[in-house]
């Protein structure tokens, strides 16, 4: 059973959080509320999130300050942040949002369909990365437990299963990359998809090297990445 991704919604106004939940409920993922920057940072201490929707204007710690804290933490620095703001102060204000680490900056009122589409891209990328990490971890365990690949080579069925599961992820990642190209998506999403494809290529090479007739030594695995 595929685990749902978590999406963090940060806004000090309950009605705005309710509206975001109504828009994103169709994605069938886990929506987590935070009514302040401090509350958002606490949630990020224990849970992994696919994307953060962050209101800019909040009392106390505003969205820019919250984003700065998120980007300073090694655990959370790579989580995509979409800024939401009810006020458009011009290019300088928008630039400040991108400088704080946002992948997108959307002014209210926003198009629900556009917001849902943007969030869904980052959810898909997150899910593909999770699948890839699982495949890499499984292969690494087999290599470490079988003398650099011996156990895997002695079990053709296991090698075939690993290869088939990786192929499914490769197919989904390729389809997502084509979708991003067709939709002229955000540069951040395209870069994340390209990073995912590079990791898939490394894992595929490791699996291919374990095929019979490729030698007795196991190949070095790509390091586990978030």
Automatic annotation (TrEMBL):
Membrane-spanning residues: none
Recorded coiled-coil stretches: 159-186
Modified residues (4-aspartylphosphate): 55
Positions of region (Disordered): 207-226
Keywords: Coiled coil, Phosphoprotein
Gene3D superfamilies linked: 3.40.50.2300
Pfam families referenced in this protein's UniProt entry, alphabetically: Response_reg
Response regulatory domain segment(s): 6-123
PANTHER family, alphabetized: RESPONSE REGULATORY DOMAIN-CONTAINING PROTEIN, STRESS RESPONSE REGULATOR PROTEIN 1
Protein name per Swiss-Prot or TrEMBL: Response regulator
UniProt organism field: Streptomyces lavendulocolor
């Amino acid at each position: 059973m595929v685990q749902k991704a978590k999406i963090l919604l940060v806004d000090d106004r309950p009605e705005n959080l309710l509206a975001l939940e109504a828009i994103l409920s169709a994605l069938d993922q886990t929506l987590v509320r935070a009514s302040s920057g401090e509350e958002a940072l606490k949630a990020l201490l224990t849970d992994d999130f696919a994307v953060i929707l962050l209101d800019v204007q909040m009392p106390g710690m505003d969205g820019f300050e919250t984003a700065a804290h998120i980007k300073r933490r090694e655990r959370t620095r790579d989580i995509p942040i979409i800024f939401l703001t009810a006020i458009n102060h011009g290019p300088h204000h928008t630039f400040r949002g991108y400088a704080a680490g946002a992948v997108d900056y959307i002014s209210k009122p926003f198009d629900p369909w556009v917001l849902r589409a943007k969030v869904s891209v980052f959810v898909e990328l997150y899910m593909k990365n999770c699948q890839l990490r699982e495949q890499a971890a499984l292969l690494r365990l087999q290599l470490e437990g079988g003398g650099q690949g011996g156990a895997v080579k002695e079990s053709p069925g296991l090698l075939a299963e690993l290869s088939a599961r990786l192929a499914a992820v490769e197919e989904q990642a390729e389809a997502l990359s084509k979708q991003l190209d067709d939709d002229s998506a955000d540069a951040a999403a395209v870069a994340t998809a390209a990073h995912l494809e590079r990791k898939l290529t490394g894992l595929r090479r490791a699996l291919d090297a374990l095929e019979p007739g490729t030698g007795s030594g196991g190949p070095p695995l790509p390091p586990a990445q978030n």
